[in-house]
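Title: Request for sanity check on Peptidase S9 prolyl oligopeptidase catalytic domain-containing protein prediction

Description:
We are preparing a figure and want to confirm that the structure record we downloaded matches what your pipeline produces today. Could someone re-run it with the sequence below and paste the raw structure tokens into this thread? We only need the token string, no images.
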Amino acid sequence: MKRALGRALAALALLAGAPHAPASARPFTVGDLLQQESFGAVVIDPAGRWVVFERRGPYASAARFDDDQGNPIGTSRLFIAERGGAGPARPLLPEAAAGQLIGALSPSAARLAVFQIHDGDWRVGVVELATRSVRWLDLAVPKPHRGRLLQWRSDEELLLVDRGGGPLTTSDRIGRVSAELLPRLWAQSAAGRGAHTVVGSGAYRDVRPRPAPGRLLRIDVETGRAVEVARGEIVDLELAPGGRHVAFRTLGADIQSRPGRQIQGDWGVSPQVERLQVANLETGQVATPCAACDVLPSLMAWSPRGTGLLFFAREGDTPWSAGRLRRYDVRPGRMSVLDDAGATPTVLGRPEIVRADWMGEVPIFLGRASTPGAGRADWYSWDGARAVKLTGALPAAAATLVTLGPQGFSIVVDGQLWSVTATGRARRLGAARSAVAAPPPKTRDRRPLATARALGSVVAADDPGRRLVRIGPDGRRAGLALPADGVVEAVGPDALGAVVRFDRQGHEARLEWRGGEGAGRVLAEINGRLADTDPLDVRAIRHTGPDGQPLTSWLYLPPRRDGPPPPLVVKVYSGDTYRVPPPFKPPVLGLQGDTRVLVGQGYAVLAPSLPRPRPAPGAGEEPALGLADRILAIVDQAAADPALAGAFDPERLALWGHSYGGYTVMATLTQTDRFRAAVAVGGYADLVAKWSSLPVPHRPRPDEGVRSNYVTGGMESGQGRMGVPPWADPARYARNSPLLQADAITTPLLLAHGDQDGAVPLTQSEAMFSALYRQNKDALLVTYWGEGHYISSPGNVRDLYARVREFLDAHLALPTTAAEGPAESPAPGPASSAPTPPPGRR
């Protein structure tokens, strides 16, 4: 919900941009894109004394760029501010190198556990907040990007997972695993010793190597003494209130698909079974509540007394929809199963999530009645025998709760805040825009932050502005007045203080600590060098979708200048819809086809909403069907709008797409010749080959399971939506594969791809290039070495934009007028020395 609020506020800021740039403004450039700074996680201690946050420096200032989506972490530093102080926050660890991340505050908030990337590995330190001194533990830990791997048991003791002497997993170093392992393997073969990797199926499923088992440790932070609690491939832990027990999950056998059943979807995306174990930290005994269970990763919830544990699990070869909510009581060691109770939990997909928690010592869950054709999801309580609906009187039942206690909970539904008692009695408390502090808090990259369960807050409508409202057992209590254009990042006790982020022109600008009714204290200001870039001029294009639904697409216009209208670049991604202008993503996700850069280069840019059409009853989806018509209908509607007369040239059109957007580009080109040029970055063209290829980074080291289900499931149940394997409906795969309609493509196409792309293999772009090369059609194939699914090395990013601009300008030029000169010089090398191709066909 917090991200949704942020997107809405960002949209308001975009729309408020002046349509005509001031004389002092300048275009947003690729250099600006690579110099962007950002904020990471923000925490306020429970007493409201300290605020600590992550500040990530200019992206291009990182020491290395082979950590895939983790590249920005290499610039991250921790800052701290104390309540009552003045001026900006200070560095928490000024002497330590960058690559710092928040781990967790100790119960008294006197200490903070932190992570740091150090010499290519990860380590953990304990910081004394009062003195800023740090003690680094002599342990090698996994990269902190998946489950919770660290939690305080007391101010003196940490629970921590380390790698047990093993190397980082493939996922923990996915951007560099090939560079590290392949030369060694090649050298072994060259020396005659041999080098090989083996994976198996069926009877041979378990032949692959397993990583070294990790260790769950109790660490005395005063002495550094470590006591091993358990050993295994541990991926998540959850400490019980009171600190006597800890639940943790370990990876088990590989999950292999079966004939006649779906891959992913109802069956899940995990490549391995996950087992639940519970350790008694006082006696050292470890219990396995359900040895035959595969446990859902999204749920390990302890009761407030720390004696009951909720989890969701399936047994045998069954889908998650056949799983059951289970309660494990540690004192008798007894497990109860929610079965035949009148309702079952709802399993949300990709990844699989079940919403459940404790209302005092009573479990509650979001689910549906067990009867066939049950309607909407509601919250239920479970007394051990039956499920009791609690939210039936509400207009709907949101998945996120604002507060939760023994007497009931509060929830935001359709802009209204409701309280619901333990017996299901509902009372409307007033208007509310969103919840902002529902536990457990997480960072923006979804790393769990280990903090105590706390009452929540909401952002409430307050004429004429907004107000942070604290929700407690006694109802609403007014808190902090909020600025209209701020995004709440963290909330202090009693909602009387908060850390608020302010954005400008699509980038983050400053972080403030707000308290009382006055102006906030500025903790940090970033991206000051971007303040003089052109304001964004964004226009809404209202239209209907393929099923008649109302939709909005968004048109970005460059500053008005003398001369002809600018050409239009249409950035496509089939399946995306935008109620507000699509937010600008941070690096590395946002480095591909940034709208601000394209507008700065003089192009108008259209972001069309392209939901998939609903298939006819009994028919499968056809993802390529009618793509060109739907895209061009939006273009034509914008061109025909009198308010947009002369805003862009509808005769000079180009396409740009990344990943599934690259597929969208290529599928569209098989259906129309109206686009003069197109760019597909990391896209796929052959659905059968995409279905069958294993991810490149996992080839030399399959320590995390065979990733066949990942790619085949993505094509059958994910974006591909084929529903069946290729042999079950080869014609459907063929109809939707641009490669097999490549003879219809007449538009010049630039294909760009990273050789280490683990999501879409380089061979996909190579296949389309080969098809166009075979027909003597205009095409470029650019391979970026050492890059994954996102082109992320600054040199390669610069080359991509320079090369694409040269390509587009050559094809989008007016028949008698040369295109306006580039705002930035193209990168040296092949792009600037290649012959200029002829104008694109129409």
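Thanks, this matches our download. The radius of gyration is 27 Å.
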